[in-house]
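Please review this pair:
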Amino acid sequence: MPIGTPFHERTFQLCESLSYREWSGYYAVSSYEPHHEHEYNAIRNAAALIDISPLFKYRITGKDATRLVDRIITRDMRKVSVGQVVYTPWCDEHGKVIDDGTVSRLEENRYRWTAADPSLRWFTQNAAGMDVRIEDISEEVSALALQGPTSGRLLVSLVRDADIANLKYFRVTKGSIAGVPVEISRTGYTGDLGYEIWIASDQAVKVWDALMDHGKAFDIHAAGMLALDVARVEAGLLLIEVDFNSSKKALIDEQRYSPYEMGLGRLVNLDKNRFVGQAALIAEHKRGHAREIVGLEIDWPQVESFYEAVGLPPAVSPIASRVAVPVFKEGIQVGKATTSTWSPTLKKMIALATVKREYTRPGTRLQFEITVEAVRHHVRATVVKLPFFNPKRKTATPVA
């Protein structure tokens, strides 16, 4: 049975909908109100506070900490300085992605590593013979995502002993909120200006209260998973077991993805020191990959026409769909759309899709399957470059 996060006593009071889901053994709010519209609008127009404590979190320390991280991930840790955060996949020996997450270099040989799935066993196996300590701090450390255009100004006015105004994208700093020591990274899963706040679990509620109280002037709202799901699709961000599968859980080869197939080739440093999966990724880089995850924009007027033909108003769920549907080229299936949603900001229907590589060039015309009154139709779709939504404020420094 799931349990509440350290913020549960606060989030439960706010959750009018009583709509929850299970996330890594914890209760996670799906939406606080019966509809997640206000929560989504907070992400894109104000400030949204999201409990992300169920993330798996690990502390890596010791003389060989950097050596261990470099052995596992596809990024080159020689290029990562103290105070920097990197998003990275890590692979099995066949070059297939086990998981993806962020690695924060807090000190020369001290890291905080986040993951979607439990990773302690894999990290420990790869640490054999190394002078390194690996700690699962998932329960010890809680986390909040503060996302949205006013999030920076809110933190500037609230945080002490940290230069939030000049904190660069994918950097981390230390400070305090309401007298509680925190670490703040300029990261997030929304594709907008945003931060993630890392707090000792026994003091987590104090930080929540300070943010919610001080955040009233910045139109802060607690936000749940439904709003986050729409935002992350707009940002072109992938979700494990939806847009790709962990190679450890995949049942067949088709369910396993390499970083190149996930569109993450830019995050693979083949010329660095030996890392797990390197030989397989070098071979794949030479021969090319057969498929890739891309963005699709769906022809909404055509969707409307199918509904009009049967006398119905057009209907699309405000909730992002995680049901895979076929993608075609001239009647032949060439892939599948794994997540689709209506984008309130872009006023478009969009999707993340895995398609054969020859159809991944932006501007390529494909067809997306929709069902209207139990009848399947092919709707025009265009391949576009990810992310769909990429505001300048996400990376701008200093924060205005």
